[in-house]
Task: inverse folding
């Protein structure tokens, strides 16, 4: 497998600011974040609640438009884009993993993956079944292909969410507290999977976490406080 | 279950059932009302066309061929054939010549009454049997023809067509045959004969009886005129119009189309029914899909996080609505077909479910469903992904 050139910036933010308007009050969430994540890096972002971690993740994931500054995903500047264009970048280049798994409860594990493939290919065909089997096998979920989320444990659900995030080979995975809803055993499994994905596939991962043990498994720990990056790791 | 749409439909059965029922209701409304109107008009038009007399004469300014009271003096039947001459009793009478080419004339009284089981309306004819059969072919297949109704014994006789006999029960609930008693115009009549083919009203009683019951002495609703030869029809029509400008003279081959035109108000009613069906189907789908979208706000957020475009989200919701609407159309077809057979078996109403009305109902059901889902679909597509993901 051809691993990515580690010098290429997959994610880069320049003086990124995000200010929320709450009533008549401006609430700054990001106060000029400068960050560069290169291809194949596995990065943790840590910081106290309210420091802007989740806002940062939503902005770099193209789900929020920043107040100012720039966000580049593989050289594509999200800040210059329309909502539709940012959605397109998200479809092509970003995989999300959420704390609450966010699987479709009415679909089987395979159905969730198939849906992601359909969105990615913008077609109504079933997507590449071989790729689904390969990813499910990689995440040791072959036996759970036809189970619905409610028939799976929390750890299994998060692994399905992880499988969904990587099924379309995104440039970067943005994981928002992926172990926040899991017990320690399942957390360990999910963190191990993330590590494997990074090492075997060269998958670039940015993970927000409060868990210092989880952060310790990454290549680099970035610390945020009051909307600033205080330590680039 | 790998399809989001089919999973949503199968795992929200109540929502699916309600949405489907809304569409089905619209389809049933369209099929039954349009089918009923078309069926009744088609049936009535066919029965008008079965009359051999080539000309019908009606009171002036009569455009409708239904519900006419007894307003036309039946003395015109003689006047057309023999002409009018002043008499000692009426020296001021304007003379009129006999109309050449007429073979026979017959006065017919037609009255509209409530249909079987108080469903719909149906005509009853009062005829002068002797002259009637000189203007049109009427085969008595069982029993005999009508008497003139001049005596108490013969006044309450009736002849009915075969369809009526086969689809109705007598006063005692038994199949109708010669000798059965049927209730018409609030009176008991004895069936003395069954005739073919169906023409005008299915039940015919003596004109004299109709006149007595409805207070139209010596009057009829229209007069059938039979010409000596087909090529004389145009000339007879022109002569009748020239000599009797106060009357309406209509070739009978025009009557089926005029009959349909006279139901203009029915067309308006059908348009209202169709509009109502559209509104019902649209609103039900709109409300059901809107509720679904609110319930699934978080799922919409997930779709957006996966990079689903607005078009993808609108398309998914519209496809779901299309599937529900299709199911609604199929269910509506099934129920309407069952209702058609039940209604036709238990009443004398006819429902015509031809390809045009089926296509109309299907298009209305599908388009209403799609239109109803549009607003929820666009609203879903416009949701903020971050807010949607945090929706509880």
Result:
């Amino acid at each position: 497998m051809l691993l990515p050139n580690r010098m290429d910036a997959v994610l880069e933010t320049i003086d990124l600011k995000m200010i929320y308007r709450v009533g008549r009050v401006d609430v700054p969430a990001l106060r000029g974040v400068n960050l560069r994540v290169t291809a194949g890096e596995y990065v943790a972002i840590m910081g106290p609640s309210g420091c802007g971690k989740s806002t940062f993740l939503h902005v770099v994931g193209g789900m929020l438009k920043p107040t100012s500054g720039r966000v580049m995903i593989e050289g594509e500047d999200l800040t210059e884009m329309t909502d539709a264009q940012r959605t397109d970048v998200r479809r092509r280049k970003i995989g999300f993993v959420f704390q609450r798994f966010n699987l479709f409860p009415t679909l089987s594990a395979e159905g969730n993956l198939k849906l992601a493939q359909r969105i990615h290919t913008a077609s109504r065909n079933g997507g590449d079944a071989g790729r689904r089997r390969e990813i499910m096998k990689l995440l040791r979920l072959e036996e759970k292909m036809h189970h619905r989320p409610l028939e799976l444990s929390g750890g299994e659900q998060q692994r399905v969410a992880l499988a969904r995030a990587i099924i379309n080979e995104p440039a970067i995975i943005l994981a928002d507290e992926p172990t926040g809803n899991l017990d320690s055993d399942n957390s360990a499994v999910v963190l191990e999977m993330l590590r494997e994905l990074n090492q075997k596939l060269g998958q670039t991962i940015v993970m927000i976490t409060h868990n210092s043990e989880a952060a310790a498994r990454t290549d680099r720990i970035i610390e945020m406080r009051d909307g600033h990056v205080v330590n680039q790791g | 279950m790998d399809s989001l749409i089919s999973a949503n439909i199968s795992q929200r059965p109540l929502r699916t059932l309600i949405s489907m029922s809304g569409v089905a209701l619209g389809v049933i409304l369209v099929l039954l009302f349009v089918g009923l109107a078309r069926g009744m008009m088609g049936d009535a038009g066919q029965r008008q066309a079965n009359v051999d007399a080539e000309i019908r004469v009606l009171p002036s300014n009569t455009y409708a061929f239904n519900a006419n009271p007894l307003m036309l003096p039946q003395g015109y039947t003689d006047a057309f054939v023999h002409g009018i001459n002043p008499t000692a009793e009426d020296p001021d009478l304007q003379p009129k010549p006999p109309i050449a080419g007429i073979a026979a004339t017959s006065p017919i009284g037609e009255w509209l009454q409530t249909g079987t089981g108080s469903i719909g309306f149906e005509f009853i004819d009062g005829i002068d049997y002797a002259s009637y059969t000189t203007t049109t072919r009427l085969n008595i297949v069982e029993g005999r023809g009508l008497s003139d109704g001049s005596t108490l014994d013969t006044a309450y006789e009736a002849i009915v067509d075969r369809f009526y006999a086969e689809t109705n029960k007598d006063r005692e609930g038994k199949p109708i045959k010669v000798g059965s008693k049927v209730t018409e115009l609030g009176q008991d009549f004895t069936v003395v004969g069954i005739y073919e083919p169906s023409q005008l009203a299915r039940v015919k009683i003596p004109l004299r009886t109709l006149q007595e019951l409805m207070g139209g002495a010596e009057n009829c609703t229209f007069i059938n005129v039979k010409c000596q030869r087909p090529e004389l029809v145009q000339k007879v029509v022109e002569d009748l119009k020239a000599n009797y400008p106060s009357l309406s003279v209509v070739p009978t081959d025009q009557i089926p189309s005029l009959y349909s035109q006279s139901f203009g108000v029915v067309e308006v009613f059908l348009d209202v029914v169709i509009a109502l069906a559209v509104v019902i189907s649209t609103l039900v789908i709109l409300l059901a899909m809107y509720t679904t979208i609110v319930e699934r706000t978080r799922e919409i957020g997930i779709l957006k996080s996966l990079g689903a475009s607005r078009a993808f989200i609108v398309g998914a919701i519209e496809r779901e609505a299309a599937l529900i609407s299709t199911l609604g159309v199929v269910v509506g077809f099934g129920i309407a077909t069952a209702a058609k057979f039940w209604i036709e078996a238990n009443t004398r109403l006819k429902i015509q479910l031809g390809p045009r009305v089926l296509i109309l109902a299907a298009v209305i059901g599908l388009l209403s469903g799609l239109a109803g889902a549009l607003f929820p679909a666009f609203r879903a597509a416009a949701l903020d992904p971050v807010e949607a993901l945090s929706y509880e």
About this structure: The CA atoms of residues 161 and 299 of chain B lie 64 Å apart. The first helix of chain B runs from residue 4 to 11.
